[in-house]
Amino acid sequence: MFDAVAARYDLTNTVLSMGQDRSWRKAVARAVDARPGERVLDLAAGTGTSSLPFRDAGADVVPCDFSVGMLREGKRRHPELAFTAGDATRLPFRDATFDAVTISFGLRNVNDTEGALREMLRVTRPGGRLVVCEFSRPTWAPFETVYVEYLMRALPSVATAVSSNPDAYVYLAESIRAWPDQAGLAAIVRRAGWERAAWRNLTGGVVALHRGFRPTTG
């Protein structure tokens, strides 16, 4: 499915989010706080747009994605990045390889959420950090009603106009509705072994930024 939408994926996301995707990426970059010389794993990186802030900060970033079509499009646009094909539940990296692991709008597409978070823990160095950016639940009830209506009715219509595979966005809308709320995802992060799990709402809870840290011992 993601192979089919690779060519216009970034444009479609910008249109469907009404330009909010740019501010969400900036929030992720601030939360990761990549520094020169650090190694950052960017999961569900798609075409690599989300990896650029880490590269620009001087970190050694590895964009990783399950979709080979996305990776091909990303390599065409950003040949300098080390695009890597990988399954989030069986990452092709050694233990304790990265200072930070991040995933934006991809965790809900993994078939084993907790298993993927445990794999992220495995490849993160002790004391290293996790940043997850994912769709969540609006905190104001009247807005949540409008938001759900947009997801199920307007989003597929808009996607038809701008996406190379609008049917994929029907699935995406349904996956957002089925996803845990902020507290629910934080509980899964803790069960996977991450410490100090916390979140911050963006855009009134439409998106939530989750953080965690790998324990320094054990």
From TrEMBL:
Residue ranges that the Swiss-Prot or TrEMBL entry lists as coiled coil: none
Enzymatic reactions: a 2-demethylmenaquinol + S-adenosyl-L-methionine = a menaquinol + S-adenosyl-L-homocysteine + H(+)
InterPro entries from the UniProt entry: SAM-dependent_MTases_sf, UbiE/COQ5_MeTrFase, UbiE/COQ5_MeTrFase_CS
Biological process according to GO: menaquinone biosynthetic process; methylation
Pathway: Quinol/quinone metabolism; menaquinone biosynthesis; menaquinol from 1,4-dihydroxy-2-naphthoate: step 2/2
CDD domains: AdoMet_MTases
PROSITE patterns in the record: SAM_MT_UBIE, UBIE_1, UBIE_2
UniProt binding sites for S-adenosyl-L-methionine: 47, 65, 87-88, 104
Keywords on record: Menaquinone biosynthesis, Methyltransferase, S-adenosyl-L-methionine, Transferase
Membership in a protein family: Belongs to the class I-like SAM-binding methyltransferase superfamily. MenG/UbiE family.
Role description: Methyltransferase required for the conversion of demethylmenaquinol (DMKH2) to menaquinol (MKH2).
Name of this chain's protein: Demethylmenaquinone methyltransferase
Organism whose genome encodes this protein: Embleya hyalina
Organism lineage string: Bacteria, Bacillati, Actinomycetota, Actinomycetes, Kitasatosporales
